[in-house]
Amino acid sequence: MVKKHAVITTIEDKRLVFLFENEEIAEVDVIVNDNKVKLDGIYTARVTNIVKNINAAFLSVNDETLYYDLGEKTGIFLNNKNDNVPHQGDLMLVQVNREAIKQKNASATSKLNIFGENLVLTLNVPGVGASKKLLKADKERLKSYFDGFETKTNNGLSFGIVIRTSALNVDEKDLIKEAEYLKAKLNSIVEAATFAPSNKMLYDPKNEYNSIISKVGAEEGSYIITDDKEIYDEFISLSEVRLSVPTIRFHDDESIKLTALYDLKKYLGLSLSQNVWLKNGGYLVIEHTEALNVIDVNTGKSIEGKKAKENHIFETNMLAAKEVARQLRLRNMSGIIIVDFIDMNDKGHNEELMAELKQQLKNDPIHATVVDITALGLVEITRKKVKKPLYEIF
To answer: Most buried in the list 28, 100, 144, 258, measured by CB within 10 Å?
Structure first.
């Protein structure tokens, strides 16, 4: 069992979340506290522009421009229309599904998600699905709970249900109760949108806090600790409406700061450092460009005096594969990632390396894929863009 805890404090005027798994740093994230649109927030948004050559519409919310893919064809319009196609001036109900990253706008979708502890309701995406991490038999059992469950809103819009991994050992009656609660929330959002003006937030998932609770889990020994009273109160409030939560602690010991107690500045520095050392003396060099991220694997001085050079290179590459996957998650690197592993002559070693890299990427909560190996032996990885990478925030 993986033991998890999260430490939340302020460093350099930023509210940071340090997630640890088995005492090893796994993620560093930022709790955003500004007036911009929130990730997963649902808003009424005005269409300001249609750009047909990229098949996109641009929407305005709180002086921020959102990208909207016209390929969705599931728009929820709040003004009278004769068609189902966005036009300049239309008022739409949308959800922010990606933060602004570098020069790219935040993006929005009409496929609304309402998040629960064990379920997610998906407007405009009907059907009952389940997490890929669940076994086939468990998926079928959990999905059967919703046979006959009415999956339409009061005004006839269809929605689906996604069963999360955390639902594995939850009673059927508790899952149905949660589904009814989320359905009522979805109905209230859709009904409120009918009379809402532009720029109105109709759903604030407090995504950061719910996400942290879900990541830490409620297993024995798991906990969240913070020295920020406002954040502590938010977690206590959420703990009153969730079935299970980790222990919530407030650090008020003035003799030692939380930053020093957990050595957080060291972990932050390592998460931003260009070089990352491997256990055998090899190391990674991580560099970011406007177009992509590059990771170079080096043996360093660890190769000196090694008779079995091929085996040592293989060992270094295998360690690097695990560390690359860890660093992608830790730094929240996204988009195109190119990894230059050390050249190996053994075809079997290369196959084992690719299998190990793919296996390690399966542990990432954000979807990451090994795309291909180029003629020069460079490994191409893509990772979904959801939030800003750590290096960009700092």
So the answer is: 28
Length of the chain: 394
d(CA 46, CA 207): 23
Q: Is the pLDDT of residue 207 over 70?
A: no
Which of 36-50, 76-90, 299-313 bottoms out in mean pLDDT, i.e. has the lowest? 299-313
For the chain, the 3-state helix, strand and coil shares in percent, each to the nearest 5, are 30, 30, 40
- As a whole number of angstroms, the distance between CA 91 and CA 81 comes to 10
Write down the pTM of the prediction. 0.77
Among residues of the chain, what percentage have pLDDT more than 90? Answer: 70
Structural Rg of the chain based on CA atoms? 23
Distance of CA 33 to the CA centre of its chain: 18
| All structural domains of the chain | 4-33+207-264 (3.30.420), 42-109 (2.40.50.140), 113-203 (3.30.230), 274-393 (3.40.630)
What is d(CA 353, CA 317) in angstroms, rounded to the nearest whole number?
Answer: 7
Q: Which helix (H) or strand (E) holds 174?
A: helix 172-193
Phi-psi sector, 74: left (phi>0), alpha (psi -120 to 50), beta: alpha
Query: 66 and 60 in contact (C-beta within 8 Å)?
Result: yes
How high is the pLDDT of residue 304? 56
Task: For residue range 61-105, list pLDDT tens digits in order.
Answer: 988 999 999 999 889 999 998 888 999 999 999 999 988 887 788
Q: Report the SS3 class of residue 272.
A: helix
Q: Which of the four pLDDT bands, split at 50, 70 and 90, describes residue 217? A: confident
Please tell me the distance from the alpha carbon of residue 97 to that of residue 207, in angstroms, as a whole number: 11
Side-chain-side CA neighbours of residue 10 (13 Å): 9
Note the Cα 225 to chain centre separation in Å. Answer: 21
pLDDT at 322 over 90: yes
Determine contact, residues 279/299, Cβ cutoff 8 Å: no
Q: Give phi and psi for 17, each to the nearest 5.
A: -115, 120
Write the single-letter amino acid at 336. Answer: I
